Amino acid sequence: MAETQNKSFPASAATRIPFALALSAVAGCADSIGFLEFSQLFMSFMSGNTTRFGVSVSRFDWESTSRVASVIVLFCFGAFAGTLIAAWVGRWRLSVLLLLQSVLLTIGLIIPHGTFAFPLHAYPIVIALGLQNATLQDEGGRSLALTYVTGAVVRFGTGLANLILGTVAPSFWIQAPLWAALSTGAVIGGFLQMRYGEDAFLFPAAVSALLAVIALVLTIVKPGSRYVSGEVETHPPDGTAAVRI
User: Fold this and answer.
1) Which residues touch 175 (CB under 8 Å, ≥6 apart)?
2) pLDDT digits (tens, 9 = 90+) for 166-201
3) Which residue, among 104, 184, 177, has the nearest Cα to 144 in the 3D structure?
4) pTM of the model
5) Which runs of consecutive H residues, i.e. helices, occur in the chain?
6) To 10 degrees, the CA torsion angle through 44, 49, 51, 56?
7) Cα–Cα distance measured from residue 197 to residue 189, given in angstroms and rounded to the nearest whole number
């Protein structure tokens, strides 16, 4: 008999797509607030931070290099830790990861600011957004582009070409809404930061907490359903047909 592993990612589009759009908006909002609040330091756009890292190194600006490099490392750590936590908590992954994200976005408001080279108060926010990328992984460990937009724009452009060629992938249709959600979140974040400053991070924290509650209710009311979980099907070594449990 085939082995089946429940990795508890939301397999149903009815859950997956609304959560993806909401989380993209949260990421755009937090990134916009952080960009304005922390002297143009990106919270989730690591491509931009990588370019800044290269420029800083070329100018021998070691303070800026440390600042950007530490953010990139911690974002990666967030994705790493989020994936391990998701595997550990199983079907509770949505509610647990979203709750952790909400807490981390709030913690950034109460810890010491640190120095320019090591902006401690930005680190929990960066970890939260790195962790977010583990929330909607599929059985192959692939994640929707929730916290960055380049992949969505590229896939939308290539998808348009493949649509003409008649070979468009099903995932093509979500790319434009993901871009729109992240952009809308960034606009909202900009307005919030101008009015509330660093306290604006409470908004994406509250949205993450609300999504965590929704995920918790779904997990309790619909345990094992495709709204909160998915299945991985593996073939047995003897080559017989796989069985989905």
Assistant:
1) 152, 153, 155, 156, 159
2) 887 777 788 888 889 999 999 999 999 999 999 999
3) 177
4) 0.83
5) 13-37, 46-58, 62-89, 93-107, 123-132, 150-165, 172-196, 202-221
6) 180
7) 10
